[in-house]
Fold these 4 entries.
Entry 1:
Amino acid sequence: MNVARTLEPPPVASASLAALYREAGIADVFERLDAELVGLVPVKTRIREIAALLVVDRARRQLGLNAEPPSLHMCFTGNPGTGKTTVAQRMAELLHGLGYIRRNHLVSVTRDDLVGQYIGHTAPKTREVLKKAMGGVLFIDEAYYLYRPENERDYGQEAIEILLQAMENQRDDLVVVLAGYKSRMDVFFRSNPGLSSRIAHHIDFPDYAPDELLAIARLMVRRMDYRLDAEAVAALCEYIALRLRQPHFANARSIRNALDRMRLRQANRLFSTALAGDGEVDADALRSIDSADIRSSRVFANASPAGEGTA
């Protein structure tokens, strides 16, 4: 007589890294990252390496192998306007897609959001920020301002100690990204070795080269539905070369500010021309930024060092 037996499914012998990659939507994250940020090849390479580590970690867990959760706290160093906040946003998407955080959620803060001005004020402020960020990514820009040893009455150290506790005790439910200038972050970590030991990934964001800045400008122009002719592109190349010689240049941020001022000059040119005629203007004129709108900048008139407010 045959005895029916319950057959257990055979153990999983392999895992599809490609399927895990697709299910997490990683390709979409990198597609958006490439569309949003020109260049940054070393940064994007490092993010892809982290993604590969996390996919393999998921595969190990799927096959029942020992998979110690990797440390995901990070430090982004570089000058302003190099894409640190944008990369942090995409990292939140990636970590959420892979199941390492509960929410596709980024909370971006500075010292003022964490440190109080009197005794008993810092702890509740810092804990409130941590509560909002829990389950996602906490991005702390210019993190070195948390530590001010020259001021004995400063409460930044209290915020650091609370952050340290959260980074250790809630590391399964919170990813912290510290950001700022590299030289200042190096000093900050030397002064706070407890923080440094909890950061697994240090990613440096390089400044953009002139050709990359031009590509960024042209991308921004297209997104704003403007157009540059050949003469305007040539003028913009000259503008970038001159502006790079001046202090306080903030990479993509300065390019965006410059384009805003070019749009301002274009609008005034169109308005003056319209008032002198019949007041009519067509779509082609509204979309066109010409070389005069660029060369009217004081950067051309006076190439001596100037502040970020240079028009």
Entry 2:
Amino acid sequence: MKSDEYYMKLALQEAEKAFNIEEVPIGAIVVMQDKIIAKGHNQVELLNDCTAHAEILALTTAFQHLGSKYLPDATLYVTVEPCLMCSGALYWSKIGRIVFGAYDEKNSYRKSTGANNPFHPKTDIVGGVLEDDCSILMKTFFQNLRG
């Protein structure tokens, strides 16, 4: 079985795709039984769709791949802590595990929910995996944006 760091590096590759097309650089992959079943990166600007977050796109691909609306045996790896919208989708997906890289004090689910956990009660959450790498990509993006 591959490590969380291994899969987060792959999620970072997805984030770099977003970075290269001038999207907020967040990447996500969905893994089940040590196999990647879905990938996604932010495409909000490209699709002109505020819901086109990496997590949502990866979840949609995973649902289609499995022919199921639930992912209790899957793990989502995402480079930045999920926002409230993505947390709602993750809740309804019943995903088994969420692993994220960088914490997001401004836009994460924690800002809106406080101490309440918005995820399914059976979902395990791990934060801070390759946090520095994930944070640097975000900081670089926003520094470049500001000129």
Entry 3:
Amino acid sequence: MFGLAPLSTVVWLPIFAGIVVLLTGSDRNAAMARWVALIGAIAGFVVALPLWTEFDRTVPGMQFEEFRPWIETFNINYHFGIDGISLLLILLNCFTTVLVVIAGWTVIRERVSQYMAAFLILSGMMNGVFSSLDAALFYVFFEATLIPMFIIIGVWGGPNRVYAALKFFLYTFLGSLLTLVALIYLYNASGGSFSLLDYYAMPIPLAAQILVFLAFFAAFAVKVPMWPVHTWLPDAHVEAPTGGSVVLAAIMLKLGAYGFIRLSLPIVPDASQYLAPLVIALSLIAVVYIGLVALVQADMKKLIAYSSISHMGFVTLGIFIFNPHGLQGAVVQMVSHGFVSGALFLCVGVLYDRMHSRMIADYGGVVNRMPVFATFFMLFAMANAGLPGTSGFVGEFLVIMGTMSVNFWYTLAAATTLIFGAAYTLWMYKRVVFGEVTNDKVSALSDVNGREILILGLLALTVLAIGIYPKPLTDVLGVSITGLLEHVAVSKL
């Protein structure tokens, strides 16, 4: 890949591009900042594509590994490597960054260079999380992602943006402090290594495993977010600008689920199985209870935010039932949710840019003025409800299949998401899109422009492609998931 290390390029190119965007200066150079950001985002996606084409789907373990000493005093190394799970999330992240830059092209008029740079730098940091095989490096990237998102919400957010940004930061930062304690324990227990691969092979007593698992859980459950530590997410989504909501839902929530897969399951497998009933219970509460909460929301963004919590409950359920269908479904659901939730927040952004309202009651009859938009919105609403033929169905179906082999009652509770998801999504769509135009502001709406059609069209193609032919995703995941489950099945005691 141009003679450069592939994963280092994927991580540092967006960060470098973000710094260049910052150097464009004030808003007098806003046009230059936009174009530099777009070039940087597209370049970041292009350099990630060889990871897909050159990835060996038959080889277990990590690929594209890079290893260099970093802080030798503490044996901290610059160690990158990915498996099929990491690969899909990196591609999702890079693709989403391109869309977010295009989405903010004309909407953001103040501090344009800082806005675009924040997303590019955030993209590189999240790629760092998905690539890191050194625990210290993982933690640095995991925590560093908070800074750009904190700035995005706090600077370009709504009227209560400062409150939402602080709540987001405090919840996620405080949850991660226990993870740092756990990593220090593992460092000492391993004889002075921060290598995640060393931790995978290290025997740990069950009592210690449980404590380490709970420390990891404090960080990853908040990031997902799981019930009852989910309350920061609706506030963050409501106040964040559209691009912030897209990245928050599409990528940042996945950091928590990825942490469970990359750290919790392989490092403390016995504790993961011992405490799995707790995680499953919390996941099912998220699926059922949060689905009911979404039904009573009057704000479109808040409804989609609660929908995200419910769908991420499906992800954690799939992870902790410990079978191939469940885990494969969880990862496919992560990817699908990234596209679908991102598309729904972009749809709300299209309406908000025209009406400056997110309240469902302020709309009605939008299809009469915006038929093309209504078509896109319908597709994404159906995908959110899990309609067969869309990406939203594939992951949920696999998780339900996996759950059925474990416990019928888990399956029955999980399947309610198909009912509640259809109920709150179609209720919102009906009230916003159908009916007669009764609002003068709605009657003045204009349909989506070329830039918006490009963004929504790309997402629509992706949602349909995964729904109709998910085999490329499941092929990439196959060996990685099999290897992980085999590792978890072998006791480390």
Entry 4:
Amino acid sequence: MLPLDPLFTSRGERVEVIDPGLNNRNAGPDFFNAKVKIDGALWVGNVEIHDRASDWYAHGHDQDAAYDNVVLHVCGDIDRPVANSQGRMLPQLQLSVPERVAAHYAELQATDKYPPCYRIIPSLSKLVLHSWMSALQTERLERKTIDIERRVERVEGDWERACFVTLARAFGFSLNGDAFEQWALSMPLHAVDHHRDDLFQVEAFFLGQAGLLDVLAMPERQRERALADDYFQRLRSEYAFLKHKFGLIPMDGHQWKYLRLRPQNFPQIRLAQLANLYYERRTGLRSLVESESIASLREQYTTQVTPYWSTHYSFGCESDRNDKRLTQQTLDTIILNAAIPMLFAYGRHQGDERLCDRAFDFLEQLRAEDNHIVRMWSECGMDVVSAGDSQALIQLKKEYCDKRDCLRCRIGHEYLNTHPCPPQGRM
């Protein structure tokens, strides 16, 4: 975006950039290992960038030895000479941002509308939007891959267990996702597997380890009903036996959230569904890797509650019979948040591009999510058809718009390079 004019230092020395180096987003100079020719001499070192030259002193770089290997100081305004901690004067290059670009950047930073670049979106070519959306999809999956790799580390490299933890987190959705992940990490699956052929014992494991059989973790009005419930007492007795046998430490039941939660999303309901799924051996990594269609994934994760919960939402409180099967929308959300990222991450781990490509194919086959982020982008003229599109837009908002990182956004880049847009209302 800068004018392609010859570059000179403040002392009139010709500057030629051979290699800009590596952009550093952590502490230290802004670019590492750059190669620049200054007045014909090749310099290899770091480059620091400031709005004004005096920022060098404001930031204390003149007292910091980490900046002694800076070979060029690039500024928007050179308002004074600068020296490093050894007293060496640094060559300085002034790069003034074009007025048009600066004005557009100020607009993007100042506007309170979301997204700030909404006026330019209808004029962008499909090629620009498609390529950017594809890159954002990949970024989103790579970010989720980092989360999965951290889980793999926590379970000592056990990808099978990490798959279970990722699936459990998806069953908690946004409100109880953290609690479900903590529960799954505390769950000794090797112990559960000794009793996997008994659904009642699997459920006792799951609910007991979640702290949901602890009457002190229940609201006071529910304690009496639970204590008078025969099934609750049987589960408590079974978990007490399993707890002693395997030395289990349950999580604190107070960590589960219920506020504004629909009954079908209560943690005990989701855990009962997950217990059924685990009992039927449909939570494993192998079955996920072998699934080659969205239909097979939906079939794999289709489940319902255990018998008791078909007539209950909480202990001791009977309701109309309902198998509480996962709806297709819920299934697709679980596939989107657990199965697809797990497939992509495992494909990366194995070096199997076929699994990674299949993850992208599944994203394109699922319908787009319906949330406020997607709706706002749609109002701006974006075509949002698949879950791949909606995931890309979530990534765009969280990693670029929310952080006002317009310079790294391709839409922001186009905005900065355009002529002023005529004022108009939102589409």
